[in-house]
Prior knowledge:
Layout: H1 14-39, H2 41-71, H3 84-113
Helix pairs in contact: 2-3
Amino acid sequence: xxxxxxxxxxxxxxxxxxxxxxxxxxxxxxxxxxxxxxxxxxxxxxxxxxxxxxxxxxxxxxxxxxxxxxxxxxxxxxxxxxxxxxxxxxxxxxxxxxxxxxxxxxxxxxxxxxxxxxx
Length: 119
Protein backbone atom coordinates (compact mmCIF):
# COMPACT_ATOMS: atom_id res chain seq x y z
CA UNK A 1 0.00 0.00 0.00
CA UNK A 2 1.31 3.40 -0.87
CA UNK A 3 1.40 6.23 1.59
CA UNK A 4 -1.14 8.95 0.86
CA UNK A 5 0.52 11.99 -0.57
CA UNK A 6 0.53 15.13 1.48
CA UNK A 7 0.71 18.64 0.21
CA UNK A 8 4.17 20.20 0.51
CA UNK A 9 3.14 22.84 3.01
CA UNK A 10 0.95 20.60 5.21
CA UNK A 11 2.39 18.90 8.32
CA UNK A 12 0.80 15.76 9.72
CA UNK A 13 0.54 15.21 13.42
CA UNK A 14 2.44 12.42 15.19
CA UNK A 15 -0.83 10.69 16.05
CA UNK A 16 -1.81 10.56 12.36
CA UNK A 17 1.56 9.09 11.41
CA UNK A 18 1.41 6.48 14.19
CA UNK A 19 -2.17 5.58 13.26
CA UNK A 20 -1.23 5.23 9.60
CA UNK A 21 1.83 3.13 10.49
CA UNK A 22 -0.34 0.85 12.66
CA UNK A 23 -2.88 0.44 9.84
CA UNK A 24 -0.18 -0.37 7.29
CA UNK A 25 1.48 -2.88 9.63
CA UNK A 26 -1.84 -4.59 10.44
CA UNK A 27 -2.85 -4.80 6.78
CA UNK A 28 0.55 -6.16 5.80
CA UNK A 29 0.42 -8.80 8.55
CA UNK A 30 -3.04 -9.88 7.36
CA UNK A 31 -1.84 -10.03 3.78
CA UNK A 32 1.21 -12.16 4.62
CA UNK A 33 -0.29 -14.49 7.26
CA UNK A 34 -4.08 -14.75 7.29
CA UNK A 35 -4.71 -14.70 3.53
CA UNK A 36 -2.21 -17.49 2.69
CA UNK A 37 -3.64 -19.62 5.51
CA UNK A 38 -7.13 -19.20 4.10
CA UNK A 39 -5.94 -20.27 0.66
CA UNK A 40 -4.34 -23.49 1.92
CA UNK A 41 -7.25 -24.48 4.14
CA UNK A 42 -8.36 -27.41 1.99
CA UNK A 43 -4.78 -28.66 1.72
CA UNK A 44 -4.45 -28.60 5.51
CA UNK A 45 -7.91 -30.12 5.98
CA UNK A 46 -6.81 -33.26 4.12
CA UNK A 47 -3.08 -33.17 4.88
CA UNK A 48 -3.15 -33.18 8.67
CA UNK A 49 -5.60 -36.09 9.11
CA UNK A 50 -3.86 -37.95 6.29
CA UNK A 51 -0.45 -37.62 7.91
CA UNK A 52 -1.87 -38.73 11.27
CA UNK A 53 -3.43 -41.80 9.65
CA UNK A 54 -0.19 -42.67 7.84
CA UNK A 55 1.69 -42.37 11.13
CA UNK A 56 -0.84 -44.56 12.89
CA UNK A 57 -0.62 -47.11 10.07
CA UNK A 58 3.17 -47.15 10.37
CA UNK A 59 2.90 -47.73 14.09
CA UNK A 60 0.53 -50.66 13.62
CA UNK A 61 2.72 -52.08 10.85
CA UNK A 62 5.75 -52.07 13.13
CA UNK A 63 3.76 -53.51 16.01
CA UNK A 64 2.31 -56.22 13.79
CA UNK A 65 5.71 -57.27 12.45
CA UNK A 66 7.15 -57.36 15.93
CA UNK A 67 4.26 -59.41 17.36
CA UNK A 68 4.36 -61.79 14.39
CA UNK A 69 8.03 -62.51 14.96
CA UNK A 70 7.53 -62.84 18.71
CA UNK A 71 4.53 -65.16 18.59
CA UNK A 72 5.55 -67.46 15.75
CA UNK A 73 7.22 -70.59 17.10
CA UNK A 74 10.73 -69.81 15.87
CA UNK A 75 13.09 -71.66 18.19
CA UNK A 76 16.17 -69.60 17.39
CA UNK A 77 14.50 -66.26 18.38
CA UNK A 78 14.20 -67.15 22.05
CA UNK A 79 16.54 -66.67 24.97
CA UNK A 80 19.36 -64.26 24.16
CA UNK A 81 17.91 -63.63 20.65
CA UNK A 82 14.63 -62.12 21.87
CA UNK A 83 15.72 -58.64 20.71
CA UNK A 84 15.66 -59.62 17.00
CA UNK A 85 11.90 -58.93 16.44
CA UNK A 86 12.40 -55.39 17.71
CA UNK A 87 15.33 -54.83 15.37
CA UNK A 88 13.54 -56.32 12.37
CA UNK A 89 10.44 -54.18 12.90
CA UNK A 90 12.61 -51.08 13.31
CA UNK A 91 14.50 -51.86 10.09
CA UNK A 92 11.25 -52.40 8.18
CA UNK A 93 9.92 -49.04 9.37
CA UNK A 94 13.19 -47.26 8.51
CA UNK A 95 13.10 -48.85 5.06
CA UNK A 96 9.51 -47.66 4.61
CA UNK A 97 10.50 -44.11 5.56
CA UNK A 98 13.44 -44.17 3.12
CA UNK A 99 11.18 -45.39 0.31
CA UNK A 100 8.64 -42.64 1.05
CA UNK A 101 11.30 -39.93 1.16
CA UNK A 102 12.79 -41.08 -2.14
CA UNK A 103 9.31 -41.10 -3.71
CA UNK A 104 8.59 -37.60 -2.43
CA UNK A 105 11.88 -36.23 -3.71
CA UNK A 106 11.41 -37.90 -7.09
CA UNK A 107 7.95 -36.31 -7.43
CA UNK A 108 9.30 -32.85 -6.60
CA UNK A 109 12.18 -33.22 -9.03
CA UNK A 110 9.86 -34.02 -11.95
CA UNK A 111 7.64 -31.07 -11.16
CA UNK A 112 10.57 -28.67 -11.08
CA UNK A 113 12.03 -29.95 -14.35
CA UNK A 114 8.80 -28.96 -16.13
CA UNK A 115 9.32 -25.33 -15.19
CA UNK A 116 11.05 -23.30 -17.87
CA UNK A 117 13.81 -21.16 -16.40
CA UNK A 118 14.38 -17.80 -17.99
CA UNK A 119 17.72 -16.02 -17.67
